[in-house]
Amino acid sequence: MTAGTLRTLHVPGKPLVLPNAWDADTAKAVEAAGFPVVATSSAAVAAALGQADHEGASADEMLAAAKRIVDAVSVPVTVDAEAGYGLAPADLAARLKEIGAVGCNIEDTDHGKGSQRPAAEQAEWLAGLRRAAGDGLVVNARVDSFLGAPDEQAVLDDAVARGRAYLEAGADCVYPILVRSPEVLAEFVRQVGGPVNASALPGGPGLAGLAELGVARISLGAGLWRYLRGVLEGTLGEIAQGKLPY
Fold it and tell me: I need a labelling partner for 134 at 20 to 30 A (CA). Which of 7, 92, 148, 191 fits?
């Protein structure tokens, strides 16, 4: 599948669902379950490497892990490239294409400063990525305005402005990560005027509910990894007590 075909799977109201993988084995499981695309989770990949999320692992480590995933499956892979690892847009585009990725997720937080980049600066960076990648990468531009926001309505205008700017810069989809209010998410979808990626969260609207809100893409992010990690911890606890749970 090419990036162009991947773009066609971003359908508002009939979203592409992505259970994010973190290694070759989990990527194979995603493919075997019938999902047409594999997405990576930076938090889960970094943890599997013994590193912290938010660019605690180097670009070389993360992209090498992504390449192992690309090589393990026959479906296209979109890579969570965090904030770009300090690479120039053209360098990141080249490295993603080199490993065979057809998409990427890019967040607008500067992890060195611990804050969001100015919207204009991020839009300029995304425009450079689009110029370098041409049509060869599906760019999912993350909007981090809602992260830790005590009042989601209060940051909605900023998030919408960023989403519009990122789409104008060439992003294919925008991702207001961790929006918890269905009403705020619906308003973001209505105002931003382009494909929207939503997070599937515990206690949220669910996959069908998110589709009804008009999103074009749904990510589990690190949710699947956290769930399975919890199962593993519980199982190990049973073994530590002398019980074999299987």
Answer: 191
pLDDT tens profile 72-122? 999 999 999 999 999 999 999 999 999 999 999 999 999 999 999 999 999
Handedness of CA 84, 6, 119, 134 (dihedral sign): positive
CA distance 76 to 198: 20
Nearest residue to 220 (alpha-carbon basis) of 32, 39, 36, 6: 39
Residue 64 tokens read as 């090498």
Residue 91: CB atoms within 10 Å: 15
Specify the length of the chain in residues: 246
Contacts for 160 with CB less than 8 Å, ≥ 6 apart: 188, 191, 192
Beta bridge partners of 80: 105
Give me 222's structure tokens.
Answer: 């690190």
Q: How far is CA 139 from its chain centroid?
A: 10
Task: Mention the CATH class of domain 3-240.
Answer: alpha beta
CA neighbours closer than 13 Å in the CB half-sphere of residue 65: 27
CA-CA distances (angstroms) from residue 196 to 96, 99, 133, 202?
22, 26, 21, 19
